[in-house]
Predict the 3D structure of the following.
Amino acid sequence: MSGYRGVDYLQFDSLLGEEELLVRRTARQFVEDRVAPIIRDCYREGRFPAELVPEMGALGIYGANLEGYGCAGMSSVEYGLILEELERGDSGLRSFVSVQGALVMYPIHSFGSEEQKRRWLPKLAAGEAVGCFGLTEPGFGSNPAGMLTRARRDGGQWVLDGEKSWITNGGISQVAVVFARTDEGVRGFLVESGAPGYSISEIHGKLSMRASVTSSLSFAGCRIPAENQLPGAIGLKTALSCLTQARYGIGWGVLGAAKDCYETARQYSLVRKQFDGKPIASHQLVQEKLAGMITEISKAQLLALHIGRLKDQGRAEPAHVSMLKRNNVAMALDCARLARDIMGANGITDEYPIMRHMCNLESVKTYEGTDHIHALVIGERVTGIPAYR
């Protein structure tokens, strides 16, 4: 297999500016040089490549679309192009960056005090600290409004009780953004590792996202200083606004997984010979699969770019992002399955990235809002009628 040169059927690159192309080129080279050589072994071993954390910080990848406090201040489109390249490497790596930037740095940047911003954002941007986001609970995933975790005031402290589950980055984090019920409604808090009553346990046995850290967070009379409350994180909508940021990045990221599957299958079809010594790329059924894959990838690229441009103009709505996440993840999964079909038995071996992407994408389809939840968000947008219950 030759090196990755990108996938561009509709002259997509002509829609990008020089700075956007440069950002993507830098991220692509990082994935080629530092991710591709190790990711198969990381997935085999169930190991997150923590050695890459400071390197990505040095490249300005964390919270790249945020301004100030050591953040790169990139556009939403530039940020999306970075995540596409990272997910071409592995969904677990892109998930790490999404959580760090969209679910930890974004809420601190948007809802934190000036002291909280100055303390945490430069460290998180540089990769000197890792964060996680605690919203999902064992009994409440698609319905975060049902959360049971509570926080109560006790003098100059808050006391938290409850549990959060399926938390990316949990076991390697120094700070968790946690949402809990209070007497005044849902509020956001910063819980630092080592806080009394705070414990973290790893989730094992995963057959997906194996190059990612997934944890459960437990709060048993967990005490944190009063100043660790995020002053602007008032109500569940603030938590959901963080998810919108992460979903936007997913919509771009899965393009990388889809392109990797497509390009691997395309190259394979040109060298794999069957029936009279002809490459299987000459067969009509194989060409039909490749044609379908590149068509859907091209459409998904344009959707991501348009919503990215809207986001940079302040015009993107959460329902727009739901369409992006729902469509592009489904597209990427279809591409992975078609690529596996083209490659036959070879498609299930880890010599090729297909099965790894396919397994990862099953998780990506579920987290940050399932396919069905996003369908209901879109349904409400076009009918005006919420159908969640």
